[in-house]
Amino acid sequence: MKLKTVFENFELLTDAPNAVAKLREIILQLAIRGKLVAQHPNDEPALALLERIKSKKKQLIFSKKTQKLDFNLSDEEDVILESLPVNWYWTNLETIGWINPRNNLPDDLDVAFIPMNLIPQKYGVVVQWETKKWGDVKKGFTHFAEGDVALAKITPCFQNGKSCVMRGLKNQFGAGTTELHIFRPIDNLTYPEYVLIYFNSVSFIKNAIPIMTGTAGQKRVPNSYVVQNPFPLAPLAEQKRIVEKCDRLLSICDEIEKRQQQRKESIVRMNESAIAQLLSSQNPDEFRQHWQRICNNFDLLYSIPETIPKLRLAILQLAVKGKLVRQDPNDEPASVLLSKIKFEKENLVQQGKIKADKPIPIDKSFELLNKLPQNWQWVRLQDFCLVITDGDHLAPPQTEIGIPLLVIGNVRNGFLDFTNTRFVPEQYFTRLDVIRVPKKGDILYTLVGSYGIPVLVNIDKPFCVQRHISIIKPSQFLNVEYLKYLLSSEMVFKQATECATGIAQKTVPLSGLRKMVVPLPPLAEQKRIVEKCDRLMSLCNTLEAKLKQGRDSSEKLMEVAAKHVLTA
Q1: Which helix (H) or strand (E) holds 556?
Q2: How many helices (H) and strands (E) does the chain have?
């Protein structure tokens, strides 16, 4: 499979998240293997170029025009390397240039100062810097000059391809972050951009990762790798042709990526607009009109998995606004349901099992502005829940075995996850207040950091939770599945965000959770809402899985295409 064929059929592969990235990898890898441009027999061979470079380097060292370092000018060791085109030659960067050279400049000279954040991401040229006096930066920083090639050596910058050619520097010199390796060509006998292609090639990056030194979070590419790793030296004229071809092809990649991103953003915007119009419908006719528009364009609006979460939220928003299922005038009104719950709570208060809630009236103007279907009612969350509390506020003792203690990490995916749990002693667990012990039919609700995640307790298993998780015990007269959908809605999450406190780590206070204003439909309608939501959520899951599966298939296809091109 030729590179041209990949470009011609690229639209078939664009669903893959790695499509453009893989195409860039193919281009750069072909470039350093001599398979991107045609070889010209009249080009000066790389071996002759290498001899000129060595000769010039010796002259510079002997004339003391540069600092004499421990350069290896001997022929390369015999190692098994893949074959190169005729007139190419295997060498290393130490032989054809200077690695991490130092500059000798007047202290009062203005130079470019470049921290890591100004080093471009992937194949590029530095375009920004700060101006500083050489005397202020000559010590403790990496030195570089016009035409040098910079390579970030620290994770994750190295893997992300932070590298560049230094062009247009202030007074042609500079200094910057110590987390760089610098290559300086000798007398323009190597194209810096060709070395940059080499630094960005998948083989150079992949081979460096296993030998990086340092701790897991701060690994670095050793100097020895940059110095000794085999470098495919192409004839100088061919280097120029390779750079020009790479520039054109990578520019095409940028355009493809831009079009992909624009298409994705356009679909997301259209989806958000369609859903906003649907949710703001003022009457049944308008609702049907907007829903029909979504149906007519469904294949486009939901052609990418990124739009499915919005569809789920729209379904829940319709559900809690009474627009998802039909109302039945024969249903027992929510007001009667609320009276039953109130009576239930009063009995439990008299028995000393729970504490009485302080009534918090709902502003009548709010109810007028936010009309609900007939037989529905606006209530506070505490009005139909027996208890809204959280885990023990004292740091629980821990043990190797015992009763599971769930933290937010065990529920953040929307279900109870008992893998990698902590444990507390059974004695501690039995002393907990009964309202702080989750039971089947309760709902957990995260309060700190990843707040706003409801999780239904659907098992009979003893466990407890940390204080960052709320325990909501609903009335027996409430459909707990409806409550879970309600707590998952944008309506509730918005209120959670508004009442959350803190800066670095937001926390939803229990008082704010209890005071949330939510809609209460008749119990019979709650059941119909749950049944409809279950069906629609299942369809969303299926659609999302198919879209992701399609992307996975495209990604594998791109991998195969890349392999065919690189092994051709």
Answers
A1: helix 523-567
A2: 19, 21
Question: DSSP class of residue 190?
Answer: S
What number of residues does the chain have? Answer: 568
Classify each residue of 435-454 as buried b or exposed e, where b means 16 or more C-beta atoms within 10 Å of its C-beta. Answer: bbbbeeebbbbbbbeebbbb
pLDDT digits (tens, 9 = 90+) for 96-122: 999 999 999 999 999 999 999 888 876
The Cα–Cα gap between 216 and 154 comes to 11
Give the residue with greater pLDDT, 218 vs 124: 218
Q: What count of other Cβ atoms lies within 10 Å of the Cβ of residue 188?
A: 9
Kindly tell me the burial class for residue 371, based on how many C-beta atoms sit within 10 Å of its own C-beta (0-12, 13-18, 19 or more). Answer: exposed
Looking up tokens 């470079």, which residue turns up? 53
Enumerate the β-bridge partners of residue 282. Answer: none
The span from the CA of 197 to the CA of 535, in Å, is 52
d(CA 101, CA 183): 8
Dist CA 113 CA 121 (whole Å) = 18
The contacts found for 338-343 with CB under 8 angstroms, 24 or more apart, are 338/377, 338/379, 338/383, 338/384, 338/520, 340/475, 340/477, 341/383, 341/384, 341/475, 341/477, 341/478, 342/383
Task: Enter the DSSP assignment of 245.
Answer: H
Instruction: Supply the Cα-derived Rg of the chain in whole angstroms.
Output: 33
Cα 159 from Cα 447, distance rounded (Å): 36
Percent of the chain topping pLDDT 70: 92
The torsion angles phi and psi of 142, rounded to 5 degrees, stand at: -75, 140
Are the C-beta atoms of 147 and 185 separated by less than 8 Å? yes
